[in-house]
Amino acid sequence: MAFLVLILGVALLLFLIIELKLNTFVSLIITSIAVGIGLGIPMTKIATSIQNGIGGQLGELSIVFGFGAMLGRLVADAGGAYRISHTLIQKFGKKRLQLAIVLASFIIGIAF
Q1: d(C-alpha 64, C-alpha 42), whole Å
Q2: How crowded is residue 8: how many other Cβ atoms within 10 Å of its Cβ?
Q3: Do the Cβ atoms of 30 and 15 come closer than 8 Å?
Q4: By three-state DSSP, how is residue 59 classified?
Q5: How far, in Å, CA of 60 to CA of 27, rounded?
Q6: Considering only CA atoms, which of 25, 36, 30 is closest in space to residue 63?
Q7: In sequence order, which ranges of the chain are alpha helices (DSSP H)?
Q8: Where in or outside the cell is it found (predicted)?
Q9: At what angle do helices 24-38 and 59-77 cross, to 10 degrees?
Q10: Which among 80, 53, 68, 79 has a CA at the least distance from the CA of 23?
């Protein structure tokens, strides 16, 4: 039974990534939850199991970094980084272009 759940989990992961074009990190989390439920792990212990599986001590941080990277990508794709850069360049002018770029990089780096 456990082997069947594992095979179905791999199929679900491939379906989410290839067919639905879902983010790989989100697909892994969804698949982990589905496999945990399929194996009969109590709902209260699934998150802990995922955290331990991701990497013990870095488990909490890797989830935060993963979702943060996705949020940063959304901002970049929406043109946020471009807008921040051009606004600062317009405010500082051509003479202080280097300062505008440094400040834009700092702001964008914090967001991503």
Answers
A1: 23
A2: 14
A3: no
A4: helix
A5: 17
A6: 25
A7: 2-14, 24-38, 43-55, 59-77, 80-92, 97-111
A8: Cell membrane
A9: 140
A10: 68
> Vertex 77, ends 21 and 97: CA angle to 5°?
155
Please give the single-letter amino acid code of residue 81: A
First to last CA, the chain: 42
Q: What is the pLDDT along the chain (112 residues), one digit of tens a residue?
A: 899 999 999 999 999 999 999 988 889 899 999 999 999 999 989 988 887 877 665 656 667 777 777 777 777 788 888 888 889 999 998 899 899 888 888 877 765 5
Token couple for 10: 């791999």
Angle of helix 59-77 relative to helix 43-55, nearest 10 degrees, comes to: 80
**Total count of residues recorded for the chain:** 112
